[in-house]
Design brief:
alpha+beta, 4-stranded mixed sheet, 1 helix
């Protein structure tokens, strides 16, 4: 009888502890999607590129009309555009949504900057 009472008390105390702990179980953790990336991209006009297709650039993208989703490194050309740039954009016209670095060119646009347009040089860190 003593053992039964001890087991009941122990079970009740464990149940109350589990209730107070408020533990959560993650059944399906979120997964991150890796995009294709390249260290070097050469573009004439954005669809005509080596390598062909939509790539993230981690290195150098050079060409006439250059477009990439994400650039970490240098994007150089007559017209450069990207969603996120971490590095340097150098060319005639540079356009990006987010920038962590420097743009050098005739027209420089960083959409998420306090001053989104500056000629010659624009930067955001």
């Amino acid at each position: 009888m003593k053992r039964l009472m001890m087991c009941v008390v122990l079970a009740l105390s464990l149940c109350s502890f589990a209730k107070e702990a408020n533990l959560t179980v993650v059944r399906n953790p979120p997964t991150t999607v890796m995009r294709e990336w390249t260290p070097l991209s050469l573009t004439l006009i954005s669809p005509v590129a080596l390598p062909p297709g939509n790539w993230d650039v981690y290195g150098l993208q050079a060409g006439g009309f250059s477009w990439a989703e994400n650039v970490v490194g240098v994007q150089a050309g007559f017209f450069n555009t990207a969603d996120i740039v971490k590095g340097l954009q150098i060319g005639g016209i540079n356009v990006t949504r987010q920038m962590y670095g420097v743009q050098i060119g005739l027209i420089n646009v960083i959409q998420d900057n306090d001053i989104p347009f500056l000629p010659v040089i624009n930067c955001y860190f």
